[in-house]
Amino acid sequence: MSIVYAVSKSDKHTFSKKPADAIFLIKGEGVEGDAHRGVTVKHRSRVEVDPTQPNLRQVHLIHNELINELQAKGFDVKPATMGENITTLGIDILALPRDTILQIGPEARLKVTGLRNPCNQLDHYQKGLTAAVLDRDEQGRLVRKAGIMAIVLQSGIVRKGDTIEVHLPLEPHHPLERV
User: Per-residue pLDDT for 44 more than 90?
Assistant: First the structure.
């Protein structure tokens, strides 16, 4: 079973977020009380390029399996450390195709838009963390492991322990790319 392992938010543009008991997702905007909430892009690097572009990064999800992997390599990370809003457990989020719908709990629905592109803020937090969330597949292609991004399709409260149902889009499936 796939579940929400933890939730977090921050009203400031900080690297890590603050763990919460629950977060409220707002349709078309993101997490209530989070600095990245908005119809247009809020990530500072994206705002510099074009502040009018749509916000495809309203909600950031990381799989707890990555956190466990990083801890085993000696990194001091836990849920919320790397800036995610939702930490998942039991779901291979990196393998999901673009436009997958995630039903979280009884109300909230997200649409997966793409991969988080790891940035140098990871190394500012802990030296070597950026390299630890990047890998290469058998063909030598870059694999970004720092989570996925989504937009909110349906508002709702998300809490630790909520179930996550995966609804794949119609084929052909498109692999996730950085957004």
Answer: no
**CB atoms near residue 104 (< 10 Å):** 27
Q: Rg of the Cα trace of the chain?
A: 15
Domain 3-167 has CATH 2.40.33.20: yes
Domain ranges of the chain: 3-167
Structure-token pair, residue 104: 């979280």
pLDDT level of residue 119 (50, 70, 90 thresholds): confident
Q: What's the pTM value of the predicted model, to 2 decimals?
A: 0.96
Res. 47 pLDDT band, cuts 50 70 90? confident
Say how far apart CA 166 and CA 164 lie, in whole Å.
6
Burial of 123 (0-12, 13-18, 19+ CB in 10 A): middle
